[in-house]
Amino acid sequence: MTGPGSGELEPRATSLFGDEEVALVDLLDRLLAGGVVLAGDVTISLAGVDLVRISLRALIVSIAPVERPGTLAARAERAELESGRG
Amino acid sequence: MSDTLTYVYALAHGVDPGEVEGLTGVGGGAVRLLSTDGVAAIVSDVDRAEFQERALEERLEDLEWLTATARAHHHVVDTLGHDHLVAPLALATVYFDDERVRAVLAENRDAFSAVLDQLAGRAEWGLKIYARKGGGGGDAGEAAKPRSGAEYLRARRKALRESETSLDDAREAAMEVDAAVTELAAATRSHRLQDAQLSGQSDPMVLNHAYLLPVERVDELRALVASFADHPKVRVEVTGPWVPYSFAQAAQGAS
After folding, report:
1. What is the pTM of this model?
2. What InterPro entries does its record include (chain A) (predicted)?
3. Residue B64 sits in which domain range?
């Protein structure tokens, strides 16, 4: 390869010959795209992997722990008390 | 039944077993080389329980696992792709054991050699093109406050129409860029458009392509993309060089 590290495209360049981080989404575009050379013995459909859905779920999961354990239960109990006997 | 499976990262030409020594793959496994005459497979052992069909399908939905696995895969392929001709495989290409990999290599040797030959002296570049918001028209509509509901709806409809038009314009411009880059490229492949939530860009993506380019044409690509830098309708983003992830395909389906 000629002159990696020179020119304007390289700073954006993230992969081959570079130590810079590759944007995960760009990497997954490539790693999940079907039609590659080998099928493998374990056959799974990578084409069906929906990153938007996964990342939304990941967001939900990462938000969830903020709610302290017991809080939901306590709130439900309170609501029950208020509506039932209030 | 062994409790590992053989994970295949890439097919390669001319890699010495010594060159993969010390390289760590998915799940921390040591990277090895399986050779038949001509084509070699870069592999490592992975946990069978983790990569069995059912488990794997679930894992793929786990962003943390997916991230770690993708990065580990990329690390191996990218490291070896630095000095060698490699045909990277899709994520999680696994075989029951080394013998199965050797058998597949032997069976498809000619097809794999052809794939590798096609990649020689070439690298992959990515182009992502976004519609510029407002398409140069500006958002003057925001300034004047509507005086009635009907006026608001009229303005709203006009804005929607305009954004549709500007998206169409952007798509058209993207096709122009694509046509120009395709002239430089040995092959083109389109990837799915990234949702704004994934791209992190507020501008909608209108094109997401990979191009296989002879390495000596990189300067031409650079000049070409620069010539679109001030395009009023679109913003062009380049990534690469990548190992040729999008182009490790056999012309006729190998098994």
Report:
1. 0.79
2. Gas-vesicle_GvpA-like (IPR000638), GvpA (IPR050530)
3. 4-119
